[in-house]
Amino acid sequence: MVEIDISINQELYTNFDTVQGEATVTNDAELTLDRIEIKLECVARSLIRVQRGKTTLTYTEKHKLVYQKLVVFPPENVLSVASPGVQFTLPPGRHRYQFLFKLPANNEDELIYHRSFVFRQNKHILCALPPSCKRKTISGMSSASAQVEHFVKVVAKKKGIMSFNTRKHKYFTFLPIDKHVGHLNLVFEAEHTFVGKMPLRADEEKKSRDVPLDSTKPSRLSRIFGSSDTHSGPVISPGLAKNVPINFQVRFYEVPGVQVNAPASFRLFVTTPLHPSTFQLSNGETSGLGELYLSELEIQLEALTVVTAQGYRRSGVRNIRLCKFQGLHKIDLARAVPSHEGHLFEVELPRDVYKTTMVMEGVVPDFSVCNIKRSYALRTDAIFKATKDETGSFFGLKARHKILLRHPVLVLSGITPEADIQAPIYVPVSAPDGPFEPAPPYADLQA
């Protein structure tokens, strides 16, 4: 009987960390072995099931992203002079072997196994070492699954057809150092116009009367059900009123990304090209004409996973709610201050409106390897009201002022590189190249 036990110096590692520990092999009788190996591995596995009539076919891929090996028995001085094919005897007892490995920044990709045929064998991608992902983290359907594992493995190898190797795994969690991404956009915005919100001043009213109005009459259906209030530019309404254009902005600090178990790394603003005096009385007090009301706000993280196996591909999106606000939060453009953009004026939404800590169970930093890709987008849905008592169109069911912002973001580990350590490479995550056989619609993978 052979027992193997593995101990390591910690449970969480990052790039350039040293995985150090001890492997203990206990045998109660003499054991004839080829060798005892200790290995450090990172493996990305993907599986896709395809239905062919009444038959379900399973296709798998397995990629070794890290593979480091140390032979601890027999000793190196014995192994170097031994004849090929000779085996060695391990006496009974408890045998301890020390090991030490260093985790790299990027992968050492090697295709290990394909079921039924080899596909794209020499087209591996260079990428940063991916984070550990449990199977349930990435896949949510039985038709497709994927996982990334990091572990130390001890193998007592025997020769012979009827001989079976004895092995033991010790899994650990790996989180990569945040990648250096260079220059990325930190501000995302969507335009919206509140049509006819402000009455014209006397001088503006005179000018507007000299401009012929659009004679196009709305259709009967549009009068009954209402129409969209969002326009690409200001439009003078028949009621001799002035439009109020705004931009709804999401601004990040240094990197367009969010971090698990950390406060929100972005701020929300409403900006306008109109000067605050437009909404003020002669004494500088607010006239109330620049008041807007935020009635709903929802922020979601969209996790997109793409899995491939032997030419088949599945993808799916998982939505993770980060924030939900319902109520009435007043925004007064008369109190706007100059924006950093120079020609705009801004009002920042208080953190209480979208107070959130990014507690995202099962969310790992974005990554891309040969057979698994994970990327993220931040989706912000905001509903405004022009007045406190404004009702929606279509019998009050449709919001008149709804703004949608959706843009790519990074998910960060929060581990920053030291000054003398080079960060892992940054590879933008995108859908893998074809050719791929079209996938059945029922087999999409859920993140």
Automatic annotation (TrEMBL):
GO terms for biological process: ubiquitin-dependent endocytosis. Transmembrane segments: none annotated. One of its GO terms (molecular function) is ubiquitin protein ligase binding. GO terms for cellular component: cytosol; plasma membrane. Pfam families: Arrestin_N (PF00339). Residues 3-173 form the Arrestin-like N-terminal domain. InterPro entries: Arrestin-like_C, Arrestin-like_N, Arrestin_domain-protein. PANTHER family: ARRESTIN DOMAIN CONTAINING PROTEIN, FI21816P1. This is Arrestin-like N-terminal domain-containing protein. It comes from Babjeviella inositovora NRRL Y-12698.
